Amino acid sequence: MNKNRVQWLALMGVVGTIFYFLHVILGEINYPGYHPLAQAVSDLTAATAPSREIASACSTVYAFFTVAACTLLCVFYQGRVNKVFRLGIYLFAIMEWTSAVGYTLFPLSGSGYAGTFQDVMHMVVTAFVVLLSIASMILIAVGCFKSKVHKQLGIFTLAVLGIMTLGSIATGVVPLGYFGFAERLSVYSVVMYSAALSLFTFRYPI
Questions:
Q1: Is 2 helix (H, G, I), strand (E, B) or coil?
Q2: pTM for the whole thing?
Q3: H or E segment at 9?
Q4: Residue 1 has pLDDT above 70, yes or no
Q5: Which domain holds residue 53?
Q6: DSSP string computed for 137-155
Q7: CB-based burial, 114-123: b 16+ in 10 Å, e otherwise
Q8: Which of 61, 79, 146, 160 has its CA 20 to 30 A from that of 105?
């Protein structure tokens, strides 16, 4: 099956996902006393985190590849599938741009939430990222079911949306000792979904 250049380049989303998990793994290795079940992933790139340098480096590479891939998805799907699906793709790309720029400008000031302006803005960025993620996935799922030929992606999208929503809700109700686990349900689902969209685009028949 022939692939065009954009489809090959869309695989940058998969590369980005690899670097995201590298930022987590290397960050935890270089953060003595870090507790993944209790602490947020953002703690690894906080301003005072001992893992900031290595984790931020990998996170920057992740952001670059993921944003580039999602921007290419917007180009690839011009005139394809349907308008609802395309709107979902556009919102997902905006979410990735918001995440990349917002978290770079406003990392946590330290472990947890200290209430500084930087921390407040970090939470504002998180709110926008969550809302855009939910809206984009709903539209992508609806677009998939409307197309009648992409139902599997629609079902997968709803499953990811359910896990992400569950994780977001759980962060507010679980004991503090499990906050990190709940947050990872939400964060990891979105990261993996971006890779899934890249793979879907690569396999898309043209």
A1: coil
A2: 0.92
A3: helix 5-9
A4: no
A5: 5-203
A6: HHHHHHHHHHHSS-HHHHH
A7: eeeebbeebe
A8: 160
